[in-house]
Amino acid sequence: MRMFKLLVSLCLLVAVPNAFCAPCTPEDFESHVSGSSQCLLMRRFGLTEPETMVVWLHGDVSSGGPANYHFAVAQSAAAHFASARVVSIALVRPGYPDGSGESSTVAPLSGGRTDHYTLENLEEVGVAIERLRAHFKPKFVVAVGHSGGAATAAVLLGMKPGLLDAAVLVACPCELVAWRANRPGARQWTSSENPRAWADKVSTASQVIALTGAKDDNTQPDLARGYVNALQARGVEARFALLPDESHNSAFRSPQVIRALTDLLAGRPAP
């Protein structure tokens, strides 16, 4: 165990990810990708030599069951943006099963499906995206997160500036304290990172689009709107849109998500 911890520490110091440091055996970048010390499940759709990489992050799935609802959305997006040379990757967050019988492994004391946005779990997702970026070599990287996945992407924007060029945050609990306070009978989460607290570290070169349904009874629109206002105050290109007919879950399947991606891809660097 002591030797394993030493190897993990050495891996975190390596600037370019390599096979020696990969917790996944094997790491194929098709169904498995390594984080800093855990092995995360994934699905790749689209090109292997892309101009743009879109990473899809699911929500907390607090009702139970596998985290795979974003697979079909990622696959559909790959087909929609095929001419734009996109690879679309559905990533499974630490500790979640994908319905295949496997689960993304999880760091100790990660909190399960509640209080999940810990530094340990965020680091796993961030390093996985770094490895995906190094492997596929895209010129532009976008994260599309839903609910808890949106909170994960929002924190990573500040925690690892430059990792993501842009993000689409759907139904984001971007002000964690206010979100928990407004949940009936809910307690505050003490281990999770608050996206709003990381807003002042987001690169001004980033682009952010936040979308929340007007019928969302889980993550109220002001949670994302306030986060976007904070980004705009720092000069980050960010905007918020209210989706009139969408609920917490339906917002992720809204055509507005594809439209947001279309806008971001239109502004990506030229090939």
Your description of this structure?
With 271 residues, the chain is α/β, with parallel strands linked by helices. It has a single domain, classed as Alpha/Beta hydrolase fold, catalytic domain (Rossmann fold, 3-Layer(aba) Sandwich). It contains seven helices and eight strands; from the N terminus they run H-E-E-E-H-E-H-E-H-E-H-E-H-E-H. Strands 1-2-4-3-5-6-7-8 form an eight-stranded mixed beta sheet, with helices on both faces. Helix 4 (148-159) links the parallel strand 5 and strand 6. It is globular. Residues 1-10 and 12-20 have low confidence and may be disordered.
Could you name the key traits of this structure?
single chain, alpha/beta, 7 helices, 271 residues, globular, disordered N terminus, Rossmann fold
Ordered list of secondary-structure elements with their pairings:
Layout: H1 2-12, E1 32-34, E2 39-46, E3 52-57, H2 69-80, E4 86-91, H3 119-136, E5 140-146, H4 148-159, E6 166-170, H5 176-181, E7 207-213, H6 221-233, E8 237-243, H7 255-266
